[in-house]
Design a protein that fits this description.
The complex is a heterodimer. By secondary structure, chain A is mostly beta strands. Chain A has one helix at about 1-20, and strands at about 25-35, 40-45, 65-75, 80-85, 95-100, 105, 110, 120-125, 130-145, 155-164. Helices cover about 15% and strands about 50% of the residues of chain B. Chain B has one helix and ten strands. The chains are: A mainly beta, B mainly beta. The interface between A and B is large, with 51 and 65 residues. Strand 1 (about 25-35) of chain A pairs parallel with strand 2 (about 30-35) of chain B.
Chain lengths: ~160, ~160
């Protein structure tokens, strides 16, 4: 009899507690978001043709420059910009690039004439959270007189934004 | 022996009575958002969109076990959150069953319980939408999350 009473006690307690367990007055949900690494870069277009066709007597031919294009970046982490060229320049002909920068440090007039495999830094120390729009790209083409007449050629310069 | 049974019966009725008066709430529909380069306002050189909204029926709330009036409060507990960002919720549907009122404009969810909407009787499928605001390129890459608690209070 005593055992039966204890069993009844346990049964009722369990039943009562089970009813309490059903009665939820609060529900929850998880809200999560991920901010991915953002290193975006774009250029405004292609520069004009660079043509060397003048010189001062006794000096090397005059350089030609183009500053008609711009680039823009947005980054949320420390970054830098590198440049490569698809094929090397002809012997005696040099192509340099200069990128203005508000959020980083410009590496002035970087010679990319033979940067086909190793990217060269053109802007460094770009701070996380930078968004620079319409920064000038300046190309400078130089040629030695010894290069002679060089046929017109198209080069593809690739700007890459990457981790600093 | 008799004493055990009497105590047990009392506890049973006390617990059962309490559970019978407690309004229940169930919430489904967690939300996850990934923000990346595609969320820039106009590509490189521009900032990220400031705010992001879930689908308008992202959250479904059901109130049950009640024949009276009630209020739903909300608060959030951050796991990892960026101080620039705020979280808001708005009710987008009234569900089926009893009546629901308020909460149809965005209410910011903070660390303190605050009223979201009110109603009466059991209602199933009340829908809600979540908004994340304050995003910018200044927010560091990372995974962030918070738990939003919906508490029903009898009124």
């Amino acid at each position: 009899m005593k055992r039966l009473a204890l069993s009844l006690t346990m049964l009722l307690l369990v039943a009562g507690l089970a009813l309490i367990g059903v009665a939820a007055t609060s529900g929850d949900q998880t809200v999560s978001y991920q901010v991915a690494a953002i290193q975006a870069i774009s250029v405004s277009g292609n520069p004009s043709a660079l043509i060397i066709n003048s010189a001062t007597a006794g000096s090397e031919p005059d350089d030609d420059t183009d500053a008609t294009t711009t680039y823009s970046i947005t980054v949320n982490k420390g970054s830098k910009i590198t440049a490569t060229i698809n094929t090397v320049m002809s012997t005696g002909v040099t192509l340099k690039i200069n990128l203005a920068s508000a959020g980083g440090t410009t590496q002035p007039n970087v010679d990319i004439s033979d940067a086909t495999t190793t990217p060269l830094d053109v802007v460094t120390a770009i701070a996380a959270g930078s968004k620079d729009s319409g920064q000038a790209i300046t190309y400078t083409l130089s040629a030695l007189a010894s290069a002679g007449v060089v046929e017109q050629a198209n080069k593809t310069v690739t700007l890459t934004i990457t981790d600093a | 022996m008799l004493r055990y049974s009497v105590i047990a019966l009392l506890m049973f009725f006390i617990f059962a009575g309490q559970s019978g008066s407690a309004t229940d709430i169930s919430v489904t529909g967690s939300w996850s958002e990934t923000i990346d380069e595609n969320d820039l306002l106009a590509g490189a050189g521009t900032d990220l969109k400031n705010s992001y909204e879930s689908p308008d029926n992202q959250v479904s709330i059901t109130i049950s076990n009640t024949t009276g009036s009630w209020r739903v409060d909300i608060k959030r507990v951050d796991t990892n959150w960026h101080a620039d960002l705020s979280l808001s919720v708005r009710r987008t549907g009234s569900g089926a069953g009893g009546s629901v009122s308020g909460g149809d404009t965005y209410t910011e969810v903070t660390g303190t319980d605050q009223p979201f909407f009110t109603g009466s009787n059991g209602v199933s499928g009340i829908t809600a939408q979540i908004k994340l605001s304050g995003m910018s390129i200044q927010v560091s890459p990372d995974s962030y999350s918070a738990t939003v608690y919906y508490t029903v209070v009898d009124t």
